Amino acid sequence: MEIDTGCLDERSDGTLNPLNDVDRSDDETADERPVAPEMVAEREGSDEPSARFRPAAKGAFAFSMYLAASVILWARPVLAHFGTRYLSNGRGDPDLYRWMLAWTPWALTHGRSIVFTDRVFAPGGADLTWSTLMPFPAVAMWPVTSLFGTLASHNALKVLAPALAAWGAYLVCHRVTRAFWPSVAGGYLFGFSAYMVGQMQSHLNLVLIFPVPIAVYLVVRKVEGSLGRVVFVTLMAGALLGLFLISTELFATTALFGGLAFCLPCATHPPPPSAPRRMHRPMRSGSSSLGTTS
Q1: Domain-embedded: residue 263
Q2: Which one of 72, 125, 144, 206 counts the least CB within 10 Å of its CB?
Q3: Is 291 part of any domain?
């Protein structure tokens, strides 16, 4: 029987050492292990368009499914009367949100402060910082409000809210699992949850929660090292600022539980001595984002 000795090295005593190349072979084959296509494209900066845009195409497809589900579940009964009929409850809070959607554009175009109005509670006026002002949605829907009225803007935001929330959760799930359909299911469970169904009846500001999963997605990207500090701080500050301009209640809740989510694991599972410097980086970046938002 012949033995292939091509991979065997000779010891100092002239005998062969069959284990000499074990470590080297492990190192050489480490890069040959299967890696998700998205990771390959990111690490190597692939020039292949399909590899570069595949995650974006999947994300767009997921959002289109969520939007279609939202239209079917919520908007289908009022599609023919989108500017004249309420998508949900039309009494109480929705009337206030409609007024807020009109007030911010009007105040900006007339040189008025958006946080104080003399159009209600005359002659003293009212301080709107204590109310659900929502300047970010009001500015974003300004063209729709100008063309079709405040009710159309209100209904459109109600349709977009579950789809955007589900899409944000999908981004988080897909970044962690790299699995498309399970991530779609996870996004649906978040964006069309019992909380969303309950708040869709009246509270527009409480269903526009999409900046929350977006912030989580950015943290995941920062921890895995695919986002630099400057980019992370800029994007996180934008997400937190958008959330603050939608609902101060959601902003405070997110800041509180975001801090707990970081501190509790550190308290219950202390990192090794070599880790603190590395673990302080996300904390410093998060603090910078909060400071920028403030």
Answers
A1: yes
A2: 72
A3: yes
